[in-house]
Amino acid sequence: MDSYGWRFVLLLLAVVVTSATGRDLRTRFATQLNGDELREMVGSAAALRHEAFVPAKRHDNSDYNSNDYNNNYFNRDFKHFDNSLLIRDNGAALVALSLHNLLVPRVSGSEANANVRNHIVTVFKALQWSVEIDAFDSETPHGKLPFANIVATKNSNAKHKLVLAAHYDSKFFDGKDFIGATDSAIPCAILIAIAHAINPLLEAQDLLARTTVQFIFFDGEEAFVNWSATDSLYGSRHLAEKWETLAADGSTIPSFSSSTKSSQSSNKKKSILKSIDAFILLDLLGDPTSTFINLNSKTTWIWERLVNIEQRLASLQLLSPQKSELVNVQNEVAYFVPGISTFGSQAIDDDHRPFRDRGVPIVHVIAVPFPKTWHTLNDDSDHVNPNTASDLARIFTVLVVEYLGLLV
After folding, report:
1. Which of 78, 155, 255, 386 has the largest CB neighbor count within 10 A?
2. What does the pLDDT read at residue 58?
């Protein structure tokens, strides 16, 4: 076959793939913000400022002084903060308040875990998102314990969803207080920052929009004793299994494994899992030395956009000065490494796995190698960088805005 023949075949295959999926993966992003729009988006969103991610207290409970991060405004007493006012008027203070609530031991089944959950629910309800609590009990090495995932959606009627997720529990350390700042207080705070930043844009969006964003906060990611198929990922395993046989209208449908081909073809309803365009999991974020590699070749189209957004923000000096210089002057990576890693998507087990195993497209954003503080008592507020958290919040916010085509 000559070159023209091969071109025709490739074009035909592209048409077939586009028809089968409904949308060409290469063009799923609805827009790309120009420089002025990026400046407006980042500059007007207080929730994305680095001050939002400055912890209120050091790990030893002492105050930061005026030299810390060149900002003494955040030597603050949260007892006098009005939650509803923060949510409405001050995104930076809201994220800081959320981080203050998250930077505590929050082992699944504990009172502190429930307090964190209640705070997250309060934030999203005040932003007028639909909030679902996926509560269940499960056997653990410590006996039967209660767990509860949080699912927050702005437009529940949308047929397609871009999901961003993190886990809000912390690892159990017998007789010791493990905070888990990177694992995963900072990722949860980033999700809250994104939600606050895009909320006005989502409210201006057409209610008939086919695609929206959904945030999932998983409970029970951590193992209580030793990581295994039964002692880990309690929340994500439960939700993925539940959504596999649940349609958007709440009715039950046969699972892929239990249904026959004939029943699948005759059943026009699709499971909730089928509504997920992509599932982006954030984990182990906040260490200033961390970078991220693409672990999933099937979602390279999203990873390439993350790389592109990082470069565009750096070129406009909209990332922290050190990271902007790294990209602009030294021509190095700030966070997202281009290309596809040979590390392998199966190598790191995390909350994405129950969804990946059921065919959901995955983007796994996790520090590789893991931070030096991973699963140590040093994973606390003293070992995360507010600039890093702010940079990542900005990158992911732009990703969501461009994917949904929100008007800035």
Report:
1. 386
2. 57
| Cα–Cα distance, 366 to 368 (Å, whole number) | 6
Give the active site residues: 221, 283
* Extended beta strands in 265-396, E state: 276-283, 362-366
**Strand 211-218 with 160-167, pairing:** parallel
Matching residue, tokens 């081909």:
261
Nearest 5°: phi and psi at 247?
Answer: -85, 165
Q: What whole-number distance in Å separates Cα of residue 143 and Cα of residue 152?
A: 29
Give the helix ranges, DSSP H, for 245-385: 261-266, 300-315, 321-328, 353-356
Predicted pLDDT at 71: 39
Q: How far apart are CA 122 and CA 91, in angstroms?
A: 14
| C-alpha distances in Å from residue 168, one per residue of 70, 219, 265, 369 | 29, 6, 38, 21
Let me know: does 52 contact 92? Beta carbons within 8 Å: yes
CA distance 13 to 186: 42
Digit-coded pLDDT (tens) for 9-67: 333 333 333 333 334 444 589 999 999 999 999 988 989 999 889 876 555 555 444 34
Q: Quick: pLDDT tens for 316-333.
A: 999 999 999 999 999 999
